[in-house]
Specification:
The structure holds 2 protein chains of 2 kinds. Chain A is an alpha/beta fold. Chain A has one domain: FAD/NAD(P)-binding domain. Chain A is 21% helix and 18% strand. Chain A is built from 12 helices and 22 strands. The longest helix of chain A is centred in the C-terminal third of the chain and has 20 residues. Chain B starts with 14 loop residues before the first helix and ends in a 22-residue tail after the last helix. Chain B has 2 domains: 61 residues, no CATH class; 131 residues, no CATH class. The chains are: A alpha/beta, B mainly alpha. The interface between A and B is large, with 100 and 92 residues.
Chain lengths: 587, 264
């Protein structure tokens, strides 16, 4: 039997980006806030110590800071006719664990979605007719607009200190920035980071082709910065140990660098780590959450009563916690009914690998957010009429690192081992670069999340089951993008190029991206969304669910900027809710 | 809620001993390393953090440097096969030391004795499917330790049968290359063990050992880093960013420094 603890005002499940922001803002108003985190506490000084942090084997290959699949994983299949099997070892995506969550080990690439991304269904139908929407799609307009989110994007960017160049300030196009972006209220908090030789070639080639290159908005900072919470960050040193690593320099925008130093000073805040929330507890009528149950490191069960429950774990695990707690109706693909688990989406990756002669690209001198980008082919920034697909991608040329266990490229056709391989590895390392397209993924009836009937976690609870594959629309889009990448690679002066297309079923094996979205989406209709526009559960009004699980489909950008904006947007609504606890949108 | 050393407190359980344990890097790391942490009979029940950041000056969690010499997992026969195998994957040639001379066999041996060797961090609950989809990735119940123990025995038995009693180590380089290529392409069948599984295990670990920080026993004298020109863990390339398209001339440095700094 769970023992009951004294009541708190707010219980937060998971202490990553959204959990720490929520905790700080709510504790500042004097509310008693407890954050329950299943992983360990992590500090920059101790856990990302400069003498131990740059260790490719430990962090990038053995996955030291990630969630251990032994503790929790998912099962996976490509379509509902198959039997799902557990992802025994992470590959395609890498969920974080511990304080800071995936905000510890990300690359820091921080984007806003396009204004049209928020009304994609209406926008595409208005411009091209409903026939352009792919078969079996579940594409929905977001119940919130870009203009509504803009102040909150701004807020998050100024907490994270993002380095970039605005392309549109209050409707005025700015030279050097992204001319396609939605209007922003002001310039980025810090100037863009430096780029390498390869990015110079990319920018020149793209400009000559009539495209509009700009530096990627970066959560690895160009200069020292003190953020809105008084937390100070240091300039990035281009060490090349960002994604999969904690940053020893206080240069990467993370909860550790940007929020926790302020948060722990709040006297009404407390974090309990190495405690796993197993359930959000509901009242008898199922309409109110009474708190959460968690299991501590001793395996003992505790009940933490609270007035307000904020689910702030990783997108996938938010969905699982809702399913395990009975919040909302689980999605059933056979009937198409139910809201929790539907609209799971991901991201496409295609491109062109470009081989040069007589260059020194120095790939090891890099940061996770380095890169020059064009947005000419994202969203509906180009005419989709001739192509027959929905969605788009940004195209970028970047190095995030040159760490050699996982990065020692060779041209296709090179043997995988032996002296010929060795020679090719040596000759290729300095003179290869990649022009890549990171694309949107729409939502579909048969891409969804539910509970697995067979496999369990160590506490005996069912694992979540992911049913996902790229659909024809995404393949068409991503492979069209690959050709655009190849054109640019050739224009950069590459001696040879290799086009990387989206072929075969989605696989859990090679790393692709940790941009898992949907499953607990926001929407205007409680039948087809788990949350209202304020990220409040339609069914249990004192539960709010943060994260990319809220995205109705995924845009052609990294999600964290939008996750941060949605958190601040929801926070304003939560302040309203606290004054008068009730559903913020009537169902 | 502040305990004796003023940094964090344990709310429940045997507070004093638990607090002490959670301050010890060893205990904390071993908790991290173990998915069974939720079931440990001893130790902290929860770590409470409030009011101050819970770290101490100079607190860090370094890995233990590998002391070369001898083997902890491999038998001498197994080590000789691995030596011969990795020397074919990355040979010593005019471009520098190969995997064997870079200590890759020692690297693999030590990795196999740690959590990696038992797949301690992976999801290893059954049922194990006999017909997984390729897109579903790793689905074998065999840990790396089992793969090496069974796989190397199967390889040697295959050699003995096919090459008139000669083991893998006794084959000439050409025969070894042909056999390794056959394992890679699943063209060779061992009795009772998948030849490609063994190839993949050795191949993956060889790449790791050749390019990982020398602290793990491989990449001796930074052979792997010198091959590609990776400067290691210098952690500051602002100077490189100022001078694009120029050769980087400083030698690589690892977490323990570099050979010219002497034995550490």
């Amino acid at each position: 039997m769970a023992r009951r603890l004294p009541r708190k005002d707010v219980v937060i499940v998971g202490l990553g980006w959204t959990g720490s922001i929520m905790a700080l803002e709510l504790a500042r108003t004097g509310l008693e806030v407890v954050a329950i985190e299943r992983g360990p506490w992590r500090d920059t000084a101790a856990d990302f110590n400069i003498g131990t942090a740059p260790d490719e084997l430990r962090y990038a290959v053995r996955h030291d800071v990630f969630l251990r699949p032994r503790q929790e994983t998912l099962t996976m299949r490509n379509n509902p006719s198959q039997t799902a099997l557990p992802i025994r070892k992470w590959g395609s995506f890498l969920p974080g664990n511990g304080v800071g969550g995936a905000g510890v080990h990300w690359n820091g690439q921080t984007w806003r979605f396009l204004p049209q991304d928020f009304r994609i269904r209406s926008h595409m139908t208005e411009r091209y007719g409903a026939g352009i929407l792919p078969e079996g799609n579940f594409i929905q307009d977001w119940p919130v607009s870009y203009d509504e989110l803009e102040p909150y994007y701004d807020k998050f960017e100024y907490v994270a200190g993002i380095s970039g160049k605005a392309g549109n300030i209050k409707g005025q196009i700015q030279p050097g920035g992204n001319p396609f972006e939605g209007p922003r209220s002001r310039e980025y908090p810090t100037p863009p980071i430096k780029q390498g030789h390869s990015q110079e070639l990319f920018a020149k080639a793209a400009t000559n082709m009539g495209l509009h290159p700009f530096p990627r908005p970066s959560g690895t900072l160009s200069v020292a910065y003190t953020n809105t919470y008084g937390c100070t960050m240091a300039p990035c040193t281009y060490c090349g140990f960002c994604e999969r690593f904690g940053c020893a320099n206080y240069s990467k925008s993370t909860p550790q660098a940007c929020v926790l130093p302020a948060l722990v000073r709040e006297p009404t805040f407390e974090a309990r780590t190495e405690c796993e929330v197993t359930k959000v507890n509901l009242s008898g009528d199922g309409k109110t959450a009474t708190g959460v149950t968690y299991v501590d490191a001793n395996g003992e069960e505790w009940e933490q009563p609270a007035e307000l429950v904020l689910v702030c774990a990783y997108a996938l695990f938010n969905v699982r916690l809702m399913l395990l707690s009975g919040i909302g109706k689980p999605y059933d693909p056979a009937s198409g009914e139910g809201a929790v688990g539907r609209n799971y989406a991901y991201q496409t990756g295609t491109g062109s690998t470009a081989f040069f002669e007589d260059v020194k690209f120095n790939p090891f001198a890099a940061t996770g957010s380095l890169g020059m980008v064009i947005d000419d082919y994202n969203g509906d920034n180009f005419d989709h009429g001739p192509h027959g697909f929905v969605g788009g991608a940004y195209i970028n040329n970047a190095y995030t690192n040159g760490r050699p266990i996982l990065y020692h490229p060779t041209p296709r056709g090179t043997p995988n081992w032996g002296s010929a391989w060795k020679k090719a590895v040596r000759e290729t390392y300095q003179r290869v670069t990649n022009v890549g397209a990171q694309g949107s993924v729409m939502s579909y009836r048969n891409n969804y999340l539910d509970l697995d009937p067979t496999y369990k976690d160590p506490l005996g609870r069912p694992l979540m089951r992911m049913t996902f594959d790229y659909q024809d629309n995404e393949r068409k889009m991503a492979n069209w993008m690959a050709d655009r990448c190849d054109e640019i690679a050739k224009a950069m002066g590459a001696k040879t190029t290799q086009v990387n297309r989206l072929v075969g079923p989605w696989s859990v094996v090679p790393y692709q991206t940790t941009h898992n979205t949907g499953g607990a989406i926001i929407g205007s209709d409680p039948k087809t969304s788990a949350l209202n526009r304020y990220l409040q559960s339609w069914d249990v009004s004192n539960v709010f669910v943060m994260g990319a699980s809220a995205f109705p489909q995924n845009a052609g950008y990294n999600p964290t900027g939008t996750v941060g904006a949605l958190a601040y947007w929801a926070l304003d609504a939560i302040f309203k809710y606290l004054k008068s606890p009730a559903p913020l949108v009537q169902r | 809620m502040i305990d004796a050393d003023g940094r964090l407190s344990q709310r429940r359980g045997s507070a004093s001993s638990a607090a002490k344990q959670s301050h010890s890097g060893v205990t904390r790391r071993s908790l991290l390393a173990s998915a069974a942490l939720l079931f440990t009979a001893t130790g902290a029940s929860a770590r409470i953090v409030t009011k101050v950041l819970p770290w101490k000056p100079n607190e860090a969690y370094p890995v233990t440097p590998i002391a070369p010499g001898g083997y902890l997992f491999f038998t001498p026969q197994e080590a000789a096969i691995v030596d011969a195998f990795v020397e074919r994957l990355i040979p010593t040639d005019d471009l520098g030391a190969g995997a064997k001379d870079a200590g890759v066999t020692t690297f693999i041996d030590r990795q196999l004795t740690g959590p990696y060797g038992g797949h301690d961090w992976l999801y290893m609950q059954g049922p194990f499917s006999s017909a997984p989809l390729p897109s579903q990735g790793l689905q074998s119940p065999l840990t790396p330790r089992q793969q090496y123990r069974q796989g190397l025995a199967a390889l040697d038995a295959y050699c003995s049968k096919t090459f008139a009693g000669r083991g893998f180590v006794q084959l000439n380089a050409e025969e070894q290359d042909k056999l390794i290529g056959g394992m890679e392409k699943s063209e060779v069948k061992f009795d009772g063990f998948g030849s490609t599984m063994l190839f993949n295990a050795i191949y993956g670990n060889t790449m790791e050992g050749y390019f990982a920080d020398p602290i793990y026993g491989g990449n001796r004298n930074m052979a792997g880093w010198n091959l590609v020109g990776f400067p290691g863990v210098r952690y500051d390339y602002r100077d490189v960013m100022e001078k694009p398209n120029q050769a980087y001339t400083l030698p690589p440095v690892g977490m323990q420094g570099r050979p010219a700094w002497g034995e550490r």
